[in-house]
Amino acid sequence: MPKSAYSIDTIEEKLERVIIVAWVDNEAGVLARVSGLFSGRGYNIESLAVAKVDEEKNISRITISTNGTKSVIEQIKAQLLKLVPVHKVADYKIDDHSVFRELALFKFRGDSSLLKKAEQICIDFKGEFLDKTAQSFIVQFVNTRREIDDFIKKAKPYGLASISRTGPLAMKKGSETIQDNKGKVL
Amino acid sequence: MSMELTGAEIVFKALSDHKVEYIFGYPGGAVLPLYDQLFQQKKIKHILVRHEQGAGHAAEGYARSSGKPGVVLVTSGPGATNMVTALTDAYMDSIPLVCITGQVPTHLIGTDAFQECDTTGITRPCTKHNWLVKDVNELAETIHKAFRIATTGRPGPVLIDIPKDIQFKKGIYKSHETIKIDSYQPNFEGDIQQIEKAVDLIANSKKPIFYTGGGVINAGPKASEALRELVSLTGFPITSTLQGLGCYPGEDSQFLGMLGMHGTYESNHAMHDCDLMINIGARFDDRITGMVSKFSPGSKKIHIDIDPSSINKVVKVDVAVVGDAHSIMSSMINIIKKKYPGFKNSNKEKISDWWRQIEKWREKRSLSFKQGAKTILPQHAVHRLYELTKHQDAFITTEVGQHQMWAAQHYKFNKPNRWMTSGGLGTMGYGLPAAIGVQLAHPKKLVIDIAGEASILMNMQELSTAVQYRLPIKIFIINNEYMGMVRQWQELLHDKNYSESYSKALPDFVKLAEAYGAVGIRASKPEELDEKIKEMISVDRPVIFDCVVEKEENCFPMIPSGKAHNEMILGPEDEETISEEGKVLV
Q1: Which residues contact B43 (CB under 8 A, 6 or more apart)?
Q2: Which CATH number is B96's domain given?
Q3: To the nearest 10°, the Cα dihedral for B219, B193, B342, B306?
């Protein structure tokens, strides 16, 4: 008999990465409910982005990048939908059916020769410069996570001092939309 | 029509609009305006507990035995934090509670004011939903939403945190008819295609079993009636979880007893070997499944549940129907009657081998025990309690531990809402306050808390509440001086290192009862047990019954952890060595 009052987990399943989107009432505590659900049930949050998207109906769209086994992803969706202020939940698999974009800001610091090299990398990666001084500049990227990761790897030795990323947002390609339970497009 | 009322008036108007009879509570600084309003009205009675946790469990007992939501009123800070255990308990066992907490005035929120705590933050993971009301004009609507959410879908506790200034302020009262919650629309009727698929599986099964749970009880007494019809219509065997006891008659021949860790041999083996499992209102809890990878490996599984997140959470199922158990079972009955007239007889042959196998498992008599002449066995105590009270529609609550499992095994229930036990959270100290709530809901009925001597001390103070309101509850303590279930696990898994599981100093429970103004009775010999139980029943006052039992008796049968249903152990001795005469069969 194993020395435990509980059974021991022996099953290992493949993890998949997925973007989960929840449309919620924009009310006090709603983000805490969502993030608390993730921490309380042991789910992972890689990134989280939230903002109001419907002024009139007071709806916010919460985008969470997470990973888990297939059944865990299904469970996350079901648990989210159980929260009272959650209207709708959808998942976006990392495939060709959706677009994914995240915004990142980078600050570079250093002497002019270092910044020059950094600037060239930023231009190669199609960054947009937002602020420049003699000792620094800020550049913005809107791209997929992988592209931004690649950029960071390249740019790191050239004075990359500060990074801010939103995590990905997701949207289905084509004319397909997601509707709430009354058929209204979200 | 709308009118201007103070926040406190709004609260009591809303409660009376929702036909609340009792609130369980404890006053304090942040709820004084509400208690002042309580004082000025006569519709709603307040039950003053001795500790807020007791209020929560009493409300749970009231709710579970009546089918109505339990209502609690406590103050801010410690009042709210003392409620957390009861809220979590209600959340785990799907009990509808509406908890109103006072909060410091809005301008003091966030300043670490006296008796301030982040009540909505603390209770967020243990309520179905909660609110901090910062605008008195939203108070009525919030209370109406709270009742709707607590009582519909999968029931559960909700909490409304009301700052003291909001209780004083005047605002508009809105009636509850107009309330809409766009994002909250629980499914009620199941998907008809899924129901038809389920019926097809039922018609083709050779080794079926119904596995039913607390969801059937939560779906109301009509769901229990529908279940009886469905089970009778199919002729299938049925087993129940701890929480489902009572939704099917405990002494019926189709009933195999409770399943799970301390379930019967026949129910667990039938669950393991079945080819079709029909889960109605149960959630594949880990005390039920044992090792999930070995759980009923060869069966198709139907899962009927009102909570979509219960589906495929632990065990993958073949057919899932999300909705109300009563509605879905009624549809199933109609389809079976229409599609397969005379199903029970035409199907009898197909499942006859299965029933023969079940009878073989039954012959193990896994609940048997051998009562000697010297000390009372705990199983015997529960068995006698059952025999002496079964004719009078008794209501049973329990604490948590061995006594709880013995009660579940040896006390048989014929009706739903008669069995109140903390299953999900396993809260010691639940049974006494729960019994208070049950007795209030059923003033004329016999209400017994089957307790352990360790559990009972956790909310002992509530005996004072029972005495104050003349609630003649009976506290039947199975006293073995140990935290019995802890001791049992230590014996089986930790080399009999009885670390901190023995209570070296226990009160004299008879004197304790008398100190509270209740009646104390003690039985320590088998021959006096019946007579003392009868005495307990005949007393029309709260009673503590100190039933001194065998100290090191273990609760069997048992599925050891990490084992499958068909690997359960029956007891320390080989059951063949117990003579037939010596067995007390129940």
Answers
A1: B12, B16
A2: 3.40.50.970
A3: -10
**Domain end call among B178, B207, B240:** B178
Statement: residue B578 has pLDDT above 70: no
pTM value?
Answer: 0.95
Residues B36 and B146 reside in one and the same domain: yes
- In this structure, the answer to whether residues B382 and B497 fall within a common structural domain is yes
Mutating which of B179, B183, B188 best tests the A interface, going by the most A Cβ atoms within 10 A? B183
Q: Are the CB atoms for B376 and B528 separated by under 8 Å?
A: no
How far is residue B224's CA from residue B255's CA, in Å, rounded to a whole number?
A: 14
Asked if residue B326 and residue B251 are part of one domain, the reply reads: yes
Q: Are residues B397 and B526 in the same domain?
A: yes
The last residue of one of the domains, among B336, B362, B388, is: B362
Smallest CA–CA distance, residue A96 to chain B, in Å, is 28
Which tens digit of pLDDT belongs to each residue from B199-238? 999 999 999 999 999 999 999 999 999 999 999 999 999 9
CA distance B64 to B437: 9
Q: In terms of pLDDT, which residue wins out, B178 or B427?
A: B427
Disruptive mutation site among B147, B158, B182, B486 for chain A (greatest number of A CBs within 10 Å): B182
Question: Does B557 sit behind a cis peptide bond, omega within 30 degrees of 0 on the bond before it?
Answer: yes
**B172 with B51, same domain?**
yes
Neighbours of A56 (CB within 10 A): 5
Q: What CATH code is carried by the domain that includes residue B222?
A: 3.40.50.1220
User: How many domains does one find in chain B?
Assistant: 3
For chain A, list residues with pLDDT below 50: 1
- Determine contact: B191 vs chain A, CB below 8 A: no
B580, part of any domain: no
CB contact under 8 A, A7 and B184: no
Judge whether B385 lies within some domain: yes
Indicate the pLDDT class of residue B580, thresholds 50, 70 and 90.
very low
Describe chain B by its helix, strand, coil percentages, rounded to 5: 45, 20, 40
Please name each of the domains of chain A with its CATH number: 16-93 (3.30.70.260), 99-169 (3.30.70.1150)
What region does B382 belong to: left with phi over 0, alpha with psi -120 to 50, or beta?
alpha
DSSP B283-341: ---HHHHSSGGGSSTT-EEEEEES-GGGTTSSS--SEEEES-HHHHHHHHHHHHHHHST
- Chain segment B327-352, per-residue pLDDT in tens: 999 999 999 999 999 999 999 999 99
Same domain as B351, residue B447: no
Domain region containing B331: 192-362
Q: d(Cα B467, Cα B49) in Å, to the nearest integer?
A: 11
d(CA B526, CA A148): 78
Are B552 and B487 spatial neighbours (Cβ–Cβ below 8 Å)?
yes
